[in-house]
Amino acid sequence: MPESRPYHHGDLRSALLAGAERTLREKGVGALSLRELAREAGVSHAAPGRHFKDKQALLDALALSGYDRLARALDSADDPALPLQPRLTALARAYLGFAADHAELLELMYARKHDPESAELMADGVERTVGLIGRVVAEAQARGEIVEGDPEHLTIAIGAVLHGLATFTAGDKSAAYASQHGGVEELVHLLLHGLKPR
Amino acid sequence: MPESRPYHHGDLRSALLAGAERTLREKGVGALSLRELAREAGVSHAAPGRHFKDKQALLDALALSGYDRLARALDSADDPALPLQPRLTALARAYLGFAADHAELLELMYARKHDPESAELMADGVERTVGLIGRVVAEAQARGEIVEGDPEHLTIAIGAVLHGLATFTAGDKSAAYASQHGGVEELVHLLLHGLKPR
DNA sequence: AACCGAAAGTAGACGCCGCCAACAATGCTG
DNA sequence: CAGCATTGTTGGCGGCGTCTACTTTCGGTT
Predict the structure, then answer these.
(1) B98-141 confidence digits (pLDDT tens)
(2) pLDDT recorded at residue A123
(3) Is the CB of B6 less than 7 A from some atom of nucleic acid strand C?
(4) Average of per-residue pLDDT across B12-24
(5) B146·A171 Cβ contact <8 A
(6) Measuring CA to CA, how many Å separate B69 from each of A139, B40, B73?
(7) Binary contact (B28, A113; C-beta < 8 A)
(8) Where does the HTH tetR-type domain lie (chains A, B) (predicted)?
(9) Does the predicted TM-score (pTM) go above 0.70?
(10) Backbone angles phi, psi at B47, to 5 degrees
């Protein structure tokens, strides 16, 4: 017998997201097609429209889950008891690890193409990560471990280094200098001590 | 009379690139369509195929011209006679300025989706910019202005800060902290002196 | 248990798109 | 001026995202 599938899929929304993430990882965002995803899920070409009003809506949902996982990864890598340098190193490791594992997803997350409503949720996700950095900065300042000055500026500086490096890491699939052999340590050290000789 | 256009356009290739860059700037890469560009140029929908084998080929050409202009901008902003700090500040300004003016283009340039042959040319363009940073680092080391160590690592660190900040700048169309009011100076200072108090 | 509205899936159509092949006009070069 | 490469044109293919109208199923109410 033709083993006919049930009329209702059960959890199509999740299946679509999962399939989308697989495709994203394997073939890049350009190869993502709602119809293809529908086919993979064994459902008609218009079914995805029931769960995502738009292709962009699906991408937004994907990005959102990315932010959630990134925030979790950073949170669980953070140990507030540590002195600044090892603490930052651990965070940097976590961030670069995420970037290496989810290059395309990270790109999606940083794409500034979300519709306004998802953008709010997005902003929330961003806040969870830059907020963490911000707290680290604030605490380090309180302990006198780093220079005074607008903590927001310092946060931006740290964020910029991390993000720039993450982009490089995600960019060349090869070797990714930074996440290997003491690369991270060296960079955090540089960030803390500066380029000028002391 | 219908003012019929000549059968040959004259310089369709350039017209397509120019139109593409306009669309890129105004509506983003997602809104780029070869057929639309053809319409704007007043030619038939298949004409672009004579000049770009692919849509990707057009994007590659665009990215390539971006690298060229970026390299020029950096070169002309660089003054080797300056001490490190102002020299870096000038370069950072130039890079961030480019990022602000050509956000979508920069994204295209960093996209890792080019076909292999264009990728070579791309690599050449990249080399012109990171090579410049590399030379700045090497000369600064020679003058004892910065710390010893693998110059490549230092170059990566500087590049990461610049690129991360450029992404932020390009990301939020508003205010872009860094390129305004002393933001750049402050960051370069941070980069040189580090976060730790001296 | 029967009903009924909402939720979830289907089928079909529309107008885009990129790309390809076959053909036509033009320009260049011998 | 003949012939060939270049650069255009038309038409068509299949895929895509999205919309509308229809159908099936689920779940809560009486």
Answers:
(1) 999 999 999 999 888 888 889 999 999 999 999 999 999 999 99
(2) 92
(3) yes
(4) 98
(5) no
(6) 42, 25, 6
(7) yes
(8) 10-70
(9) yes
(10) -60, -40
- Distances, alpha carbon B162 to alpha carbons A14, A159, A163, A180, B94, in Å: 38, 11, 10, 22, 10
CATH number for domain A55-193, candidates 3.30.70.100, 3.40.1280.10, 1.10.357.10, 3.40.50.1010: 1.10.357.10
Q: Which CATH architecture has domain A1-52?
A: Orthogonal Bundle (1.10)
- By C1' distance from the Cα of A10, the closest nucleotide is C8
User: CA(B112)–C1'(D10) in Å?
Assistant: 35
Superfamily name with CATH number, domain B54-193: Tetracycline Repressor, domain 2 (1.10.357.10)
Could you give the angle at the alpha carbon of B174 between the alpha carbons of B169 and B179, nearest 5°?
Answer: 40
pLDDT at res. A172: 72
Query: Which nucleotide does the CA of B44 lie closest to, via C1'?
Result: D9
Cα A17 to Cα A31, A116, A169, A196: the distances in Å are 14, 21, 25, 48
Amino acid at residue number A184: V
Which residues in chain A have their CB less than 8 angstroms from residue B113's CB? 28, 30
* pLDDT band at residue B2 under the 50/70/90 scheme: very low
